[in-house]
Predict the structure.
Amino acid sequence: MPSTMAEVAVREVARSCGALVIECAEVGGHVAAAADRTATTLSGLADFDQAAAALTQHRASVGAAIARARQSSQLMKQRLDHCRTTVVDSGASFTQLTDLVVDLNARMERIMVALSQVQQTTEVIGAIARQTNMLALNAAIEALRAGAAGEAFGVVANEVKKLAQDTRQATARIETTISALATEGAALGAAIAAGTESGARARQGLDGINQAIDELGRFVTLIDTQSESVAMSSDLIYSSIATVQGELAATADATRINRETLASAAERLARLEAVGNQMLDRISQSAAETDDTPYIALARDHAGRITARVEQGLAAGEIDLAGLFDSDYAPVAGTNPPQFTTRLNSFADRAIRPLLDAATADTPRGIGCVVLDRNGYLPTHLTLRSQPQGADPEWNNTWSRHRRIIIGPCERRAIDSEAPFLLNCYRMALGNNEFLPIKSVFVPLVFGGRRWGVFELAYVDQITAQAEALTAQALARNATQQAA
């Protein structure tokens, strides 16, 4: 009975230890994810704070630009007022000049009338002079007829004739002068009339300029008003930015503290997980039966089958030791996550993959199994997890796990271990920030007398939604959704 009770107690301790490790792994995953999200939040807060700081730095230049704009608008208003005064004064001067020109035009018209009257009078004088000349000629003839008695009368007739001739010559000169004056007066009158019209048009133009200045003045006033509004809004914005920066600083400090707390919690959980794994493995290494004993037996049995098949391949020349231990990992272009090829791949797909599929099918609640070389390279994988990569890296991470190098602390500890097996619990990354806490039995693989790597058999204590997401049915549903 004591022996039986001891065995039950050991089994319960192993079960509790496994549950503790699984719980630590699951909680650690959530804590690590929260820490990552917190780091992302901190980065975003830092970027936002830098943007706010840049806006604050630009405040002085914006204020100076607004001040310059307002100063320019004030100066423009002053210049417009000066221009308006000048235009008004010019308009008044043009009005006076136009009135003067109009008055001058009227005077020229009166002068032209007077010249016309003088010309008419001159014509009358000329006619009288012609008649007087005729009379003088007749008098001279009569004086000749009278002889000595008409000599005195002849002298008078000659003087009258000379007077008539002088009068006719003076009249001709006057007519010439009046004609020239009339011509010049007509030209001057036409010029005055044209000047009057130009003055009227200039006055209209000045009125248009004055209206444009008024409109421009209203626009400048509007700019000045808007500049003042912009300045007030800018002050309000920068005041709000300063408030936001203060809140951001407080939020960043709190987030930074949370991140440090989460990181510390994640480290402590990782240490607790490691201790739990050590306890679980030591219990499993003892002769005591636990819930994991059947899986350990299955893992060692299937590792033996894989070893036998590889030795058979070596003996038959299907693969040589150089190809078996090839570590010249050639990157496969365009793969994400990265995949690599070696000379072992074709043999691994042909000889080892069927054994991995069979081992998984033979394992209750089995998640899968795989072989890893000493560098964590997976030359092949289950058929289910060896799908061609697509465009989605997260999908590839779940269904295209072959030809990859996947090594973490758990895998490294198993590869370095010389024990006949190693039982370990850890989080299996599924993509899209999902993970699955699993148990794995690692069994050393020795090929051709040399340590090659390990065989891993993974399983869960109970099937969960995350575990079901790794089944063939889940892959089929995923393919159907993508096709739709």
